[in-house]
Amino acid sequence: MPQPLAVIISGFLMQQITFVKFTLFISLTVTLLTGCSSSGPAANLAGAEPTEPPFTNDEPEKYQTYIVQTTPKETVRFFVARDGDKWRVDSAYGTPNQTTSLHTDKDFVLAYEAKAYSEYESTHGFNERPNMVQEISYGMLNSKEKAVYEEISSEAGMAKFRFIDAKGKESEVTFDKERGLPIKKEIFSVKDGAKTLEITISLEGLTTEVDPAHFEIPKEFKKVSAEEMKKILTPR
């Protein structure tokens, strides 16, 4: 049975982070298997009671930002814009493979290399954007997952928290007190007391001034059917 267009869109949006997450999963699995030999301040948090984040990480009602994922192997860029009920999420931003999920009065998908767009029926409604943003920000936004948190620094309007989540992953989040949002998350593997940075996720160019043009379809884009868009987005 052919996949719904919304499913293909979601898959295409997430393919930019599949390899990154796979690499991270392997390294963290090794860490967990050797966890008894780990040491350091974060290891001492393992027996504490998990709580919700001691900082706000809800998306603003109006904002735009680049979400940048950096590993030793590659850098992947996303773009997110929201103005109330209007929103867009771009994957592979700035490359020929750039693809946009756009919600205004309807739901659209835009394929930049093909200069094409199509309407589609969202399978998740208004939950689609929060889920996308939580995924591509690695839970830095829109996540209420409980963990064990420790504030390790606070200066110049920034606070940094170290935490271990329910799966034993160690992370550090830098929180911008003025903006009221995390702006950077670093995820580590730990082995024999040594920490290795696996991935950094950053919010770059974060602003509450949103360009209305972000919610418009470029004039040079042609409208295609949902079936044609499936062909454009389906990997060959």
Give a short synopsis of this structure.
This protein is an alpha+beta fold.
Description:
Helix content is 19%, strand content 38%. Strands 7-8-9-10-11-1-2-3-4-5-6-12 form a twelve-stranded mixed β-sheet, covered by helices on one side. The two termini are 17 Å apart. The protein is α+β, with helices and mostly antiparallel strands and 236 residues long. The chain is elongated, with a radius of gyration of 19 Å.
Distance between the termini: 17 Å
What general outline do the C-alpha atoms trace?
A: elongated
Strand order of the largest sheet: 7-8-9-10-11-1-2-3-4-5-6-12
Q: Specify the number of helices.
A: 3
Q: Mind describing the biggest β-sheet?
A: 12 strands, mixed
Please name the defining characteristics of this protein.
3 helices, single chain, 236 residues, 19% helix, alpha+beta
Question: Which helices and strands occur, and which strands form pairs?
Answer:
Blueprint: H1 5-33, E1 62-70, E2 75-83, E3 86-91, E4 99-103, E5 107-111, E6 116-119, H2 128-136, E7 147-155, E8 158-165, E9 170-176, E10 181-191, E11 194-207, E12 222-223, H3 226-233
Parallel strand pairs: 6-12
Antiparallel strand pairs: 1-2, 1-11, 2-3, 3-4, 4-5, 5-6, 7-8, 8-9, 9-10, 10-11
Helix pairs in contact: 1-3
